[in-house]
Amino acid sequence: MYPPALPQQSPYTSCYCEENVYLLCQTFLTDEQVSSEWDIFGVFISNPSKTVALWGQKNARIPGSVVVWDYHVVLLLLPRLAGSGSWIYDFDTTLPIPCSSQEYLDESFLPFISEQYTSLFRIIPGRIFIDNFASDRSHMLLGNGELSSPPPYYPPIAGPVATEMGMTMNLMTAFVCMEKKSGTFGDVVELDELKHDLVTCVTE
């Protein structure tokens, strides 16, 4: 079973990966064909020092070199039909979009790096992500009050549950945070555990 193509009109704003993925997740969840065949997840990638190393990123100063992000966000599709592959959508990768999970993880996260740059992965079911996420973009503010990168053209995002609770910003505390504590969403796994879980999922 082939994954859905990245919609041609998918909004994209450089340095706002969480919002790019949020809107893509929203699109897939409202597409009955996609949501009936695939389980959809938002995946937040970070670590306690907020220095994760990714290869194959468009922002690399030298093609093929590493980029160190404070965090990164991608979308994961898991098939409901056994034997089908899982897929990653990363707006900032030089790999295909979508890319098979195995290829993406093998090419984007190389082994034998120091612990400071090792990634953790917070896996969040799509509906929970869409309902509870909120960002007022304050994490992008510089000391002079200006944003470090031009913002998207649309207003800041707050999901329906977040809005009902009066929440305007939980990006860093509930999603990027890699601690397993109250107030966060989804499950945090290491790279090897994620690879194992994806292989198990598609072969059961």
From TrEMBL:
<keyword id="KW-0378">Hydrolase</keyword>
<dbReference type="GO" id="GO:0005634">
    <property type="term" value="C:nucleus"/>
</dbReference>
<comment type="function">
    <text>Mediates the side-chain deamidation of N-terminal glutamine residues to glutamate, an important step in N-end rule pathway of protein degradation. Conversion of the resulting N-terminal glutamine to glutamate renders the protein susceptible to arginylation, polyubiquitination and degradation as specified by the N-end rule. Does not act on substrates with internal or C-terminal glutamine and does not act on non-glutamine residues in any position.</text>
</comment>
<dbReference type="GO" id="GO:0008418">
    <property type="term" value="F:protein-N-terminal asparagine amidohydrolase activity"/>
</dbReference>
<dbReference type="Pfam" id="PF09764">
    <property type="entry name" value="Nt_Gln_amidase"/>
</dbReference>
<dbReference type="GO" id="GO:0070773">
    <property type="term" value="F:protein-N-terminal glutamine amidohydrolase activity"/>
</dbReference>
<feature type="domain" description="Protein N-terminal glutamine amidohydrolase alpha beta roll">
    <location>
        <begin position="12"/>
        <end position="196"/>
    </location>
</feature>
<protein>
    <recommendedName>
        <fullName>Protein N-terminal glutamine amidohydrolase</fullName>
        <ecNumber>3.5.1.122</ecNumber>
    </recommendedName>
</protein>
<comment type="subunit">
    <text>Monomer.</text>
</comment>
<dbReference type="InterPro" id="IPR037132">
    <property type="entry name" value="N_Gln_amidohydro_ab_roll_sf"/>
</dbReference>
<dbReference type="InterPro" id="IPR023128">
    <property type="entry name" value="Prot_N_Gln_amidohydro_ab_roll"/>
</dbReference>
<dbReference type="InterPro" id="IPR039733">
    <property type="entry name" value="NTAQ1"/>
</dbReference>
<comment type="similarity">
    <text>Belongs to the NTAQ1 family.</text>
</comment>
<dbReference type="GO" id="GO:0005829">
    <property type="term" value="C:cytosol"/>
</dbReference>
